[in-house]
Design a protein that fits this description.
It is built from 9 helices and 6 strands; from the N terminus they run H-E-H-H-E-H-E-H-E-H-H-E-E-H-H. The chain is of the alpha/beta class. A 6-stranded parallel β-sheet has the order 2-1-3-4-5-6, with helices on both faces. The longest helix has 19 residues. It is globular and about 50 Å long.
């Protein structure tokens, strides 16, 4: 949900015109001018960074709003960086992320396939923020994404729902579902949350899909993912690392939005993507 903050605050100062897609056709455009460092369809991954990175924005955000910091920094480090706009159901909904999680996972599937085809890479890494850290789990578990993704790093994501109530909770349920079908899917105990966290085929009770390395990054000062520990995922230590920024940087006061605009989460994400498995729990970022 990145951002219910974006919905409630940032969008009041930004145009509400229907956003343009941030996933240009490789044949027609090689670089996305709206997001520095992203969507260079001529980029070829290096031996140091063999997986292209796909940035997955949050609710009501656009790639240009959500990812200017991470996109530029990752590009400067030598990654091939790509970012999609998801969740409008081909323009049916005016803002990104409004379509159901199930429908949006299909957007991500198509985009990742396009990235892999363009770059020649075997797998991609995913970096998601807020709702963009939950929706990809639908892709990984139910849309075949586990075979196409190496690392998944999620910043401030409602993996077990959030107790934050948006304006949509004040409307009749049928009205909310008609306007923003995804908005009530972030509630604790929703069908989507329950299905993602209770896989009957997983005898170990893990909340992750085998074959993918998961790193979650949260902050104690998250205003929208309540409690902030909702971001954590259950799984073996060789497959999942759960990080709270203040555990290694106790003086940090970054909030929900700032998880996508801060050097500490960036360092953790790079650590995860640059090594086998999830982020190293013993890693100590420069605070």
């Amino acid at each position: 949900m990145t951002t219910l903050l974006v919905c409630v605050a940032a969008l009041t100062s930004l145009t509400l015109a229907r956003p343009q897609s941030a996933d240009p056709e490789p044949q027609s455009q090689s670089v996305d001018p709206s997001l520095l460092g992203a969507n260079d369809w001529l980029c070829r991954p290096s031996k140091q960074h063999p997986e292209p990175v796909v940035l997955v924005h949050g609710l009501f955000a656009t790639p240009a709003m959500n990812w200017p910091y991470m996109s530029e920094k990752l590009h400067a480090k030598g990654y091939c960086v790509f970012a999609l706009t998801w969740g409008t159901e081909n323009g049916k909904y005016p803002l990104p992320g409004m379509a159901t999680i199930e429908e949006s996972a299909k957007d991500l599937k198509l985009f990742v396939e396009r990235v892999l085809l363009a770059t020649g890479a075997r797998k991609a890494d995913l970096l998601g923020h807020s709702a963009g850290g939950l929706m990809p789990r639908q892709y990984l578990r139910f849309e075949g994404g586990a075979a196409r993704v190496d690392d998944f790093v999620a910043l401030g994501s409602p993996n077990h729902g959030t107790e934050f109530h948006s304006a949509f909770h004040d409307l009749p349920e049928w009205v909310s579902n008609a306007i923003c079908p995804s908005c009530l899917q972030f509630d604790p105990g929703s069908k989507v949350i329950t299905r993602l966290n209770n896989d009957p085929e997983d005898e170990d009770g893990d909340e992750v899909k085998k074959g993918v390395s998961y790193t979650t990054i949260s902050t104690k000062f998250d205003e929208y993912i309540l409690p902030y520990t909702s971001a954590e995922l259950r799984g073996g230590s060789s497959q999942v690392t759960n990080i709270t920024v203040q555990d290694t940087c106790p003086d940090s006061t970054i909030n929900h939005l700032e998880l996508a605009f801060d050097a500490v989460p960036l360092q953790w994400a790079v650590n995860a993507m640059d090594r086998p498995g999830p982020a190293d729990p013993g890693f100590r970022p420069d605070c």
